[in-house]
Amino acid sequence: MQLIITDARFSRVRAVQLSGLRLVLAALGLSLCLMLVSATLYHWVFLKGAREGWPVIGAVVRLVVRDEVAQQDRFMRENIDVMAKRLGEMQAKLLQLESLGERVSGLAGINPGDIKTRPGQGGILIAQHNLSMDELQAALADLDQLTNQRTDVMTVIESRLFEQKIRKMLVPTEAPVKDVNLGSTFGWRIDPFTGRSALHTGLDYPAESGTPIFAAAGGVVVTQEFHPQYGNLIEVEHGNELITRYAHSSRVLVKKGDLIKRGQKIAEVGTTGRSTGSHLHFEVLVQGVPQDPQKLLNAGSRLATPKLAWHGAQALLSDKVPGSHMLEMPALNPQSRQR
C-alpha cells in the first residue's frame, strides 16, 4: 500500500510505502492509543462523576450496582435453598437415627434418656476462620456419610437384639403358676397310686382349682385334648423340637393352632386325669425326651442377657436325667405318659 502526501505550501510531494506488517503495527498502535484514551476518560469522567454524584452518571452507577446486588442476592438465595434442602435431609436422617436408637435401647434394656446427654467438648482456640461454602458443603457431606454408616450399624444391631429377644421369648423360663410353692420335683419318686418307684417327668404346682396357668414361653399350641392320664392337656411347641406340657387343667382357654405369647393365660388349674388333687403338672421335652424344667426356670432368673439365656438353656437341656438314661417318651401315647 502506498500513501502520497502533498504539501501545497512548499510544493512538495512525498510518497510513503506501507507494507502489510506496517499496517498491522499501525492498527495495533492506534488501538492501544484508543484504549488509553478510553481508560483515561473512564477514570476521569465516570469514576469522578460516580464519586461526586453527577446526575446522569450517578443514576447509571446506581443501576449497575442494583443489578450486581440483585445477581448476588439471587446467587445467595440459590445457595441457601440448596443448603436448606440438605439441612432438611439431614434432619430427617437424624430423626430416623434417633428413633432407631430408641428402639435399640429398648431391646438392649437401656433407658433412652440416659444417652441423650450432650457430650462435652472444649479446648483452646487456635487460628479460627470463617467457613467457605465449599468447606460447609464438605462438612455436610461427611456428616451425611457418617449418619448413613451409623444407621446401617444400628439397623444390624437392632436385628440382632430383636432376634435374641425372640429366642428368649421362646425358651420356657417363666413359671407357669405364680406365687405357688413347688410340689413334686423332676426325677424318681414313690408313685402315689402304686407305691412303687417311678420317674416323675415334670414339676407339680399344687394350687386351688381355677388358679391361672400361664405360658412359660411363646409358641404354637400343637395339642389340646383330654388324655386319660394327663386330663385336660395342652402342648405348646417353641421351635427347635422344644415342647412344654400343661396337664390336669380344669379349664382350657386355647385351642390347637393358636399362637400364644409368653405369660399368656392358657388354662386354669384342676385335677382331671390321673391326679390325687388340684395341681398343675408341667413338663419340658426336647426331641420327645423329658427334661428337668427347674433348670430352665433357674436359668431364666440367673442369666441376664437373652443370648446367654438361650445358650445356657441349651446347655442345661443337654444334661441327662439322673438315673433315667434319657428315657424316650413317645408324643401322645397314653400308655407311656406319666403323671
Q: How would you explain this protein's 3D organization?
A:
With 339 residues, the chain is α+β, with helices and mostly antiparallel strands. Among the domains are: 2-52; 187-317, Glucose Permease (Domain IIA) (Distorted Sandwich). The protein is 43% helix and 21% strand. The chain has five helices and 14 strands. The chain has helices at residues 20-52, 55-108, 133-169, 293-302, 306-317; strands at residues 2-7, 12-17, 187-190, 197-200, 203-206, 212-214, 219-227, 231-237, 242-249, 251-252, 259-260, 265-268, 279-286, 289-291. The strands form four sheets. Strands 5, 7, 8, 9, 11, 13 and 14 form a seven-stranded antiparallel β-sheet that branches. Helix 1 crosses helix 2, helix 3 (133-169) packs parallel to helix 5 (306-317) and helix 4 (293-302) packs antiparallel against helix 5. The longest helix is centred in the N-terminal third of the chain and has 54 residues, at 55-108. The chain is rod-shaped. The N and C termini lie far apart (132 Å). Residues 304-310 and 319-339 have low confidence and may be disordered.
Q: Taking Cα atoms only, what radius of gyration do you get, to the nearest Å?
A: 46 Å
Low-confidence stretches: 304-310, 319-339
> At the third CATH level, what is the topology name of the domain at 187-317?
Glucose Permease (Domain IIA)
> Quick one: how many beta strands?
14
Category from helices, strands and their pairing: alpha+beta
CATH-level-2 architecture of the domain at 187-317: Distorted Sandwich
Q: Could you give a short account of the major beta sheet? A: 7 strands, antiparallel
> What share of the residues lie within helices?
40-55%
Element pattern in H and E: EEHHHEEEEEEEEEEEEHH
The residue-averaged pLDDT reads 77
Query: Cα distance, first to last residue?
Result: 132 Å
CATH class of the domain at 187-317: Mainly Beta
- Basic shape: rod-shaped
| Share of β-strand residues | 15-25%
Total number of helical segments?
5
CATH superfamily annotation of the domain at 187-317: Glucose Permease (Domain IIA)
